[in-house]
């Protein structure tokens, strides 16, 4: 019974640490860029879009499609960086488990 109590304490501690790590992710920001930095997207660790910056010289009313593609590319880069950040910060709690989609 003692081992079970010890294990439950360890699980509770790990849950607290994981909750803290998830909370800290909200404060972290990543940036995705496209077109050599003419489009920048900032996102926090909870995948919330925080800002979009577009250089005025890239805005061409005759080529809206290019601007849309640049925004999409910057957004996708930021999402990838958030996924990497989450895997780094929360992956240690998986304890070697390889469960797709867990984080």
UniProtKB/TrEMBL annotation:
The keyword Flavoprotein does not apply. InterPro entries: YbaB-like_sf, YbaB/EbfC. Residues 1-29 are annotated as: Disordered. It is found in: Cytoplasm, Nucleoid. Coiled coil: none annotated. One of its GO terms (cellular component) is bacterial nucleoid. Transmembrane segments: none annotated. Pfam families: YbaB_DNA_bd (PF02575). One of its GO terms (molecular function) is DNA binding. Keywords: Cytoplasm, DNA-binding. Belongs to the YbaB/EbfC family. Homodimer. Binds to DNA and alters its conformation. May be involved in regulation of gene expression, nucleoid organization and DNA protection. This is Nucleoid-associated protein H1164_15445. It comes from Thermoactinomyces daqus.
């Amino acid at each position: 019974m003692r081992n079970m109590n010890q294990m439950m304490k360890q699980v509770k501690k790990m849950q607290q640490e994981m909750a803290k790590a998830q909370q800290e992710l909200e404060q972290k920001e990543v940036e995705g860029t496209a077109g050599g930095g003419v489009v920048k997207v900032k996102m926090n660790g909870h995948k919330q879009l925080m800002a979009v910056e577009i250089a005025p010289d890239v805005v061409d009313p005759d080529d809206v499609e290019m601007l849309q593609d640049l925004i999409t590319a910057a957004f996708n880069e930021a999402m990838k960086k958030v996924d990497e950040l989450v895997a780094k910060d929360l992956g240690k709690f998986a304890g070697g488990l390889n469960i797709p989609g867990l984080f």
